[in-house]
Amino acid sequence: MAERAEMAERAEVAEWPEVAGRADTGEPSESGAPSDEAGHEDAGAAGPDDDADEEAGEPGTGEPDAEDLDPDDLADDTELELALEALLLVVDSPVDEGSLATTLNQTPSRIRQTLNRMSLAYTADRRGIDLRRVGEGWRFYTRDRYAPYVEKLLLDGQRARLTRAALETLAVVAYRQPVTRARVAAVRGVNCDGVLRTLLTRGLVEEAGTEEQTGGTLFRTTELFLERLGLSSVQDLPPLAPLLPDIDAIDDLDG
Length: 255
Description:
This protein is mainly alpha-helical. It contains 11 helices and 5 strands; from the N terminus they run αααααββααβααββαα. β1 (129-134) and β2 form a beta hairpin. α3 (77-88) packs across α5, α4 crosses α5 and α7 packs across α9. The longest helix is centred in the N-terminal third of the chain and has 24 residues, at 2-25.
């Protein structure tokens, strides 16, 4: 009996390392119960550190900083076109090639070539939008064919038009600029103060200094004027000669 008790005691002692190893590794015991409390506390204490390590090791999911932008990312022409589309969709006024080149870390010449290629492609595909260079910059516009639908949606059939007096005054400023208020009135034969104030308010003309001889304020057209007419510069205005009456007709009027 004594020998049996001693053998049982030795067998029990031999099993202790196995039980201890299971508790350390967090494995369930033979009865299926979870590991001891010490094992759980150790795992819980290591949790925050593990999370910190994961956060430090994970790549950033936020947007890249402007300083991190790599010009090589837009080495492909298609990628550059897509980036230009994204920029031109959010501008409120035509943006010049230099600003686009600075934003995208590209050369102005490459930006110019890409924009010209995009413009031709939009026209060839007969897209609903048109990419044009107006004034000193580029912008998307509604293609002329679909302008009535856009006007119907935005203006509900009502179009804000300039009066005939405003159009005449604007034409004088456009073709004679910079020009004083007195000279505009002399060409039209009527006082133009109110009309000029209207054009100033609408942003179609602006002050351009004063005339040395008379001290009168000079007026000129704005970028908005060119944008509305779809012109790159005032040199693109149609010549006046074909619109003027013949010399014989003028002589008849004078007679």
